[in-house]
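Sequence in, structure out. Go.
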Amino acid sequence: MARTPARTRTLLALAAFFLVVIAAPSQAAAKPTTYENPLRIQVPGDGLVESCADPSVIHSRTPGDDSWYAYCTTDPLNDDDRNADGSFRFRLIPILRSIDLVRWTYVGDAFASRPAWVRDDAGLWAPDIAYVDGKYHLYYTAPDTDLPGGGSAIGVGVSSSPSGPFTDSGGPVVEPSARWTFDPDFVEVGDVKYLFYGSYFGGISARQLTTDGLRSIPATQTQIAIPNRYEGAHVVKRDGFFYLFGSATDCCRGPLTGYSVFVGRSQHVLGPYADKDGQSLLQGRVGGTPVLSMNGNRWVGPGHNTVFTDEAGQWWTLYHAVDRTDPYFDGAVGFTKRPLLLDPITWVDGWPDVRGGLWASNTPQPGPVTEPGEKSGHEPPLARDARVGQPVPELSDEFDSATLAPRWTWVREPAPATYGLTGSAFRFDTQAADLFVDSNSASVLLERAPKHDYVVETRIRLNLPPEGCCFNYVQAGLVLYGGDDNFLKLAHVSIWETRQTEWAKELAPVPAGYPRYGNTVVGAPGEWTTLRVVGCRGTGGREDTYRAHTRRDGGIWVRGGVWTHSLADERIGLVSMGGSGFIAEFDYVRVYRAHGCSQAIKNG
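Output:
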């Protein structure tokens, strides 16, 4: 989902639109056998498309046209896409065309001007393309409208061609309300049409559409996912299950973007959807199995994906991500650039994972099959993570003694009555304090971290109620601490209606305007939750990498994303903060050697 509203009208006339389509260079010769991210998108005579957020894709259904078309959220095409006054030219849903899913060409914008009911400074976000009863329907988010009360809504444009132009239906498909009405996804089951939509404020819902697909039926609205966890819903069906892909956290924090994709499945299109661990996407301890997150290479914030199959039946996903070495449009720090990426999906025991858990690729990969009869060159890989090795006894603590071991030290020691050993756990009352950017008032219990590759693990109970609002942002968990402004944190945290495990990174100093804090999330917490971080030391100029894992008692290990960091004088720590009135119990802290880090880093 885009978060930057358009600042100017697109001046592309229809005649120019058709000229671009006609002038698009042929892609038929010398079909490539490999591709490399980001995908190369040619602007005829004018450089490359450098940002294509929230992509949607369709294989043309028009006789004589065997092309694929992709649609992007409103943004400039590249750093040089500007008006005469130097301001960025915001395109009203750029359209891309390809015959091989690897080489793409920009062919114009879906709309020459904003629909009359959309505010004249609003973008058109998160397009979703569908072929509906012989026409192409392009659903989109209008983040600001001129409708009574304003607010966000979902519209639809209709065209007889996937390259447009699209004619708006004249009003919203889903009207504004007291929620974020974002991110449409069209789904048809039998003769019933549905629209999934929503974002953090309000969650994800679904409605039936009218038979023409141009309006929704409010009385049919069904809640699909709890608020404050997911956006960018995308639903596909495979082998008797519907799979709901959704993206979580912030799409647009430059090099600290932790946006990631998760999945749940159901035998019914309207759910309930649950993850691989059996956790519902509707419950407070919200479920969702990671499908795509950071892996330690240059790509961060991979998300808002679309899923499809090629001619050989191989599943693929198009998505956007952020290049942490080039995160912003030139001269616009804070305006995150989100190029278009492509990678295959591996299915294991009925669950999808991008590149078998390797996630975003950064080297040449076998391309999709776009000619009938061809065989796929894709061999499903499986990620090889670092493994838990021998214990490091001098850094492990079962918390079964009368007093803390002398190796533990405090940053800002709390009042003695607020912490202590119970004989079987370390009790640490939550504090009305924090460890966040310039708010560094929380106590941190520390011991040294190994210099070698290692695994650190703690099992924690935080007595937050499993459901209900809000307790923001009460949390407890594990930190890898290089100072108050340089750390990683894996914690059970309350976020409005939800309970999640946050995997966060903070650093300083940073260039002016750059963020200092970014986060992703991992698996659903339980009454007791085991938090694990695998730290792999970089060699040969590589960065240190850290991967998070979580497991609720009685559940499975959930593998999360990778942050890189440079933590001078690195230490292992425990925190319990974000608000008073609750108690965290740490069953133990265990440290092990890690084996196989060199292979795990190579995978990234």
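Check: Residues 2-28 have pLDDT under 50 and may be disordered. The two ends are 26 Å apart (CA to CA).
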